[in-house]
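Hi R.,

Here's the chain you asked about this morning:
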Amino acid sequence: MANKSDASLCPRADIGGQAVLDGVMMKSPDAVAVAVRRPNGDIVVKREKYESPAKKHPWMGKPFIRGAVNMVQMLGLGMRVLEDSMKMSGEEEEEPGKFEKWLAEKLGKSVDKVVMAVAVVMALALSIGLFVLLPNTVIMLFPKNATGGTLLLKNLVSGLIRIALLIGYISLVGRVPEMRKTFQYHGSEHKTVYCHEHDLPLTPENAQQFSTLHPRCGTSFLLLTFFLSILFYSVIDVLVLMIFGYDLGANYFLRVLSRIVLLPCVAGISYEALKALAHAETPLTRALRWPGLQMQRLTTRKPSNAQLEVAIASMNAALHGLPEGEVTEEGWVILHQNEEK
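And here is the predicted structure, written out as tokens:
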């Protein structure tokens, strides 16, 4: 066993993940694994190598830059593992529509890739419309002769509207019966990560003792980003007013465009803040973490032991490689139900 000084020289790498359809994805520094529970009770596990963009391009791992890189990367990875989980579950996929088939023929791409691309575009359009376009309509209620205080008030009101929309959206999604299971798998991911971080054997019984609320969760990241954006955009607006004498809020299009263009900057700042808060234990950091943890009560539920088995299978595969078992044509490993008991 490594002593304390060795542990400080080789700090534990953060393991992250997300809930997918009937399962969990876990990402270690060098691999991504997905485990899914099929309707017959079997667990199907997939693993692929992962190489951080910072290894190829060191500048991508620099503070503040790495947050924006991670945001883009996790968006792509998240959509891909969701597609993987649908295939791994063994359930029949819906027949693509005529538009997707026509688009696939025109682009020379597979229907699956076109359907996923369309889903990504629609998700981005919904996010921009709900969290950028709609909250910024509030600027029309303010006078055009801007001052520093007016700019701050504009950003405060639009930011609070954005946060209210986020909470409302998640609350509504949580009412969909199928989402309850996904939120349980989200909770199983957090409990399993906690179990690993506490150096306990990865068993459902050990994992159940931990909370479903984790400081490095993407839900906390979203809320932190929304809060910090109020301050960040206020500073930018004041600087533009002082240097150029122009109020970005006077033009709705320019205001919205500036929010979209500067989003990677906000993501970079929020990423560093989230990591700092997650790894520090002081009364101040605990207080600053509290809103994000409370937000996770909307996106996590207590999992069953069977759901924890899936998260543990994903964690073990990400850390140690695929388990032994029946291998499918796709290279997935099937852990039959009787093997898990």
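One quick note: The first strand starts at residue 16 and ends at 20.

Cheers,
M.
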